[in-house]
Automatic annotation (TrEMBL):
<comment type="subunit">
    <text>Component of the translation initiation factor 2B (eIF2B) complex which is a heterodecamer of two sets of five different subunits: alpha, beta, gamma, delta and epsilon. Subunits alpha, beta and delta comprise a regulatory subcomplex and subunits epsilon and gamma comprise a catalytic subcomplex. Within the complex, the hexameric regulatory complex resides at the center, with the two heterodimeric catalytic subcomplexes bound on opposite sides.</text>
</comment>
<feature type="compositionally biased region" description="Basic and acidic residues">
    <location>
        <begin position="65"/>
        <end position="76"/>
    </location>
</feature>
<keyword id="KW-0648">Protein biosynthesis</keyword>
<dbReference type="InterPro" id="IPR000649">
    <property type="entry name" value="IF-2B-related"/>
</dbReference>
<keyword id="KW-0963">Cytoplasm</keyword>
<dbReference type="InterPro" id="IPR042529">
    <property type="entry name" value="IF_2B-like_C"/>
</dbReference>
<dbReference type="GO" id="GO:0003743">
    <property type="term" value="F:translation initiation factor activity"/>
</dbReference>
<dbReference type="Pfam" id="PF01008">
    <property type="entry name" value="IF-2B"/>
</dbReference>
<comment type="similarity">
    <text>Belongs to the eIF-2B alpha/beta/delta subunits family.</text>
</comment>
<dbReference type="InterPro" id="IPR037171">
    <property type="entry name" value="NagB/RpiA_transferase-like"/>
</dbReference>
<feature type="region of interest" description="Disordered">
    <location>
        <begin position="38"/>
        <end position="80"/>
    </location>
</feature>
<feature type="region of interest" description="Disordered">
    <location>
        <begin position="1"/>
        <end position="25"/>
    </location>
</feature>
<dbReference type="GO" id="GO:0005085">
    <property type="term" value="F:guanyl-nucleotide exchange factor activity"/>
</dbReference>
<dbReference type="InterPro" id="IPR051855">
    <property type="entry name" value="eIF2B_beta_subunit"/>
</dbReference>
<dbReference type="GO" id="GO:0005851">
    <property type="term" value="C:eukaryotic translation initiation factor 2B complex"/>
</dbReference>
<protein>
    <recommendedName>
        <fullName>Translation initiation factor eIF2B subunit beta</fullName>
    </recommendedName>
</protein>
<dbReference type="GO" id="GO:0005829">
    <property type="term" value="C:cytosol"/>
</dbReference>
């Protein structure tokens, strides 16, 4: 639910509609006093809803009409909250659909003539970014690391060639050998943490270390919807997950490595196939988002504009109550 606050930052109607509420909680008043520019958090919207248990029962003759009026007011606020949530979700969907074009518009500022760009795996954002530079008459070559074991780099290489870009496909193990010929590394991201660290496809930490060793800029492309308000050390953060071993080994070919003859069923060979890498912020040179370019040290400020701390506290309280 905290993610629903992403798209509310550009919604000017929310600030104006708050004046229509006759009752504001203490938390809402405090939040408004802290920052009049920040959009209302989800917790503020929920606390602004009237509590049925707090409504006093009156014994006057006009009690029925007063109860009906309060019930209608509650229903109106519920409908407004539902409308705000649906509008926020629609704006988030629109942001996700348009972020690739907004990031690609900045390509001409970062890619120049006769440069060599290195990337790994497949990313639509990277594809559109490189193609936009070509459309601006930039002449450059792209090295694509294949991204084993899923080999998503093969798909990206085909797309680049289909769009007329000079492309060289290399193995992941050849990155360090080729990095000295590279002018810039441009990659996508699965998520951007609050400290500026990146959760990215497996193999990118190796690329980032090679880029740092040869003083090659390491640039990460990420839409605003990939910003995460959590830190890597938070216990609820899962930095990795394991994929099926079948992507690495053919079970029929390696069946003799399985110790099924002893009856224990314990395999002699173990396969670890991680999905992601964690790239620390010290290895990242620049983030390019749909709002512009940012240093890793600035990402926590950018994330604070999209996620309210009140919503994070609300999430922790809900988890604690469970």
């Amino acid at each position: 639910m905290a993610g629903l606050n992403l798209s509310a930052v550009s919604d000017d109607d929310d600030d104006n509609d708050q004046d229509d509420h006759p009752v504001l909680s203490a938390a809402a008043v405090a939040a408004a006093a802290r920052s009049t520019l920040r959009p209302p958090s989800l917790q503020t919207l929920l606390e602004d809803m009237p509590d049925p248990a707090a409504v006093p029962h009156t014994s006057s003759s006009g009690g029925d009409s007063e109860e009906k009026s309060k019930s209608a007011d509650k229903s109106s606020r519920s409908r407004k909250l539902k409308h705000d949530v649906i509008e926020a979700v629609n704006e988030l969907i629109e942001d996700i659909d348009t972020c690739h074009e907004q990031i690609a518009e900045q390509a001409v500022e970062h890619i120049h003539h006769n440069e060599v760009i290195l990337t790994l795996g497949s990313s639509r954002t990277v594809l559109e970014f490189l193609y936009a530079a070509k459309e601006k008459k930039r002449s450059f070559r792209v090295f694509v690391a294949e991204g084993a074991p899923r080999y998503q780099g093969h798909l990206l290489a085909k797309e680049l060639v289909a769009r007329g870009l000079q492309t060289t496909l290399i193995t992941d193990s050849a990155v360090f050998a080729m990095i000295s010929r590279v002018n810039m590394v441009i990659v996508g991201a699965h998520a951007v943490m609050a400290n500026g660290g990146v959760i990215a496809p497996v193999g990118l930490n190796m690329v980032a270390l090679a880029a740092q060793r040869h003083a090659v800029p390491f640039v990460v492309l990420a839409g605003s919807h990939k910003l995460c308000p959590l830190y890597p050390h938070n216990p609820e953060v899962l930095l990795n997950e394991l994929r099926s071993p079948s992507e690495l080994l053919d079970f029929g070919e390696f069946s003799d490595c399985m110790d099924f003859g002893s009856g224990s069923g314990s395999p002699l060979i173990h396969v670890v196939n991680p999905t992601f890498d964690y790239v620390p912020p010290k290895l990242v040179s620049l983030f390019i988002t749909d709002t512009g370019g940012h240093n890793p040290s600035y990402m926590y400020r950018l994330i604070a504009d999209y996620y309210s701390a009140d919503d994070l506290v609300l999430q922790r309280k809900a988890a604690a109550s469970n």
